[in-house]
Specification:
about 450 residues, alpha/beta, four-stranded antiparallel sheet, about 25% helix, disordered C terminus
Length: about 450
């Protein structure tokens, strides 16, 4: 009688949650100075290994640390911020190349190139707290920055994408799968840096990174190389022998970033990776994130530092749990200002109002008796004409230059206009619940509105 072949390594259950609470009693014991920590999970290290990565047989096998089974969170309970628990049976696959259509969008359509797709996603905690009606599609090979104040909904959005939370409504797709039912192969392609420290405090910095790398199946030689590379990147190589619990808050953030980067994932989810980090090191980290993007990785980064939006391919502004605006940094800047901005200084007092509507000048605003701001369709076309235009109106130009709003000003302006649009809609409807709707009955999406009319934010 024929017998059934034993199940292969990939036939195990794939519905393992994305996150895992570290269990102090089962943490890997601190390695001796000359010992190399052994991988905590039994996995075929030579299944996908290259000859260069062949492990070196130690003189005496070190006992493998025990790892507690994953804890499955309740569907509606917010999960703790912990690193992605790797349960790999193969080495990390190579990164996919970036698609040609490299545009972050906010609509209902789904493309094959979309690495992350949220369609009408809400997570309602009650009393108006949560995120509501988020539409967001992120193609591969891009950096999307989610910018907003504390409590805006950035971390909730990240946790919906990791599968730690289930949406109250809407659909989330990550790497083509529902994140609450990731396969092991898919989880291996994701690196996650939570907002709160979630590593082992009794292990040293290099032991923590080495332990995470071993869970992802990195072989001994590659693991040692990657541990050193990421610790040097975040400036912790000289502090590698210090226990994680004794590191400062900023150093702990850098250690968590190193753990998220060590296995070279295809998709990086970083929740405020530069919080508490000095500006010089912050610049180094962003240079590394840009290098990863150029190598085809996809990155989603939340931040409270609005100026970091300049480093992203696209920026999603979130306030009050709602997507206020989405676009490239230049698109958002033009949306906030209503066009390109030109600052003009004249030789004497001058009234700029007669210039409105001429040669692409949308509107003007006096900022002093001899200075004014002009909002134009194209500063490169209008600036050379300013001498003649002002002369025809009885003035003389002393200086003219294009100016740009800072992202602090862009964010403030767009949030204020979003709030005004919603309040105006509620007043027009006679009051009601301030919540978006996918059937067109809710407040007007400010991204579809014309640029602001009379004010030019941040112009001085």
């Amino acid at each position: 009688m024929p017998t059934r072949a034993p199940a292969g390594p990939h036939e195990a259950s794939d519905a393992v949650p994305l996150q895992q609470e570290p269990v102090p009693n089962t943490a890997p014991s601190r390695a001796e100075p000359d010992a190399t920590p052994a991988p905590a999970a039994a996995m075929p290290e030579d299944a996908h290994a290259s000859p260069a990565d062949a492990p070196v047989a130690p003189a005496a096998a070190a006992p493998a640390p025990q790892v507690a089974p994953p804890v499955v969170p309740a569907p509606d309970a917010p999960a703790a911020d912990v690193p992605v628990p790797p349960t790999a049976d193969a080495a990390t696959p190579p990164a996919a190349s970036a698609p040609a259509d490299n545009v972050v969008r906010s609509d209902d359509t789904l493309r094959a190139s979309d690495v992350i797709a949220l369609r009408g996603v809400s997570r309602d905690y009650g009393d108006g707290v949560g995120v509501f009606d988020i539409d967001l599609q992120v193609p591969g090979g891009t950096i999307l920055g989610i910018v907003g104040p504390s409590g805006a909904g950035k971390t909730t959005t990240i946790r919906l994408i990791t599968g730690a939370l289930e949406p109250t409504s809407g659909e989330v797709t990550v790497l083509g799968e529902n994140p609450t039912r990731f396969r092991r192969h898919t989880r291996e392609r994701i690196g996650y840096m939570p907002q709160q420290f979630a590593l082992y405090p009794d292990l040293t910095a290099d032991e923590n990174v080495d332990f995470v790398a071993s869970l992802f199946g990195l072989l001994v030689r590659r693991r040692r190389r990657r541990v050193r590379e990421v610790l040097e990147l975040v400036g912790l190589w000289d502090a590698r022998g210090r226990r994680a619990g004794k590191l400062s808050g900023g150093m702990q953030r850098r250690l968590e970033l190193a753990c998220a980067l060590v296995h070279e994932p295809d998709l990086l989810l970083l929740d405020e990776p530069t919080a508490g980090i000095d500006p010089i090191l912050r610049k180094v980290i962003w240079e590394e994130l840009t290098r990863l993007r150029e190598a085809g990785r996809t990155l989603l980064v939340t931040t409270q530092y609005v100026t970091e939006a300049e480093q992203c391919d696209a920026v999603a502004l979130i306030a009050g749990g709602r997507l206020v605006a989405l676009g490239t940094p230049d698109e958002l800047r033009r949306r906030a200002s209503g066009g390109d901005l030109i600052e003009i200084e004249t030789a004497a007092a001058f009234d700029p109002e007669p210039l409105t509507g001429r040669n692409g000048i949308r509107r003007v605003r006096s900022t002093g008796s001899r200075t004014f701001i002009a909002v134009t369709d194209d500063a490169g076309t209008t600036t050379p004409l300013m001498d003649d235009l002002v002369s025809e109106s009885g003035g003389k130009v002393v200086a003219a230059r294009q100016i740009h709003l800072t992202f602090d000003e862009v964010f403030t302006t767009l949030v204020e206009h979003d709030r005004a649009a919603r309040e105006g809609m509620l007043a027009q409807e006679g009051g009601g619940e301030d919540r978006g709707s996918r059937d067109g009955d809710g407040p007007v999406d400010p991204r579809s509105m014309d640029a602001p009319g009379d004010d030019v934010a941040g112009a001085a």
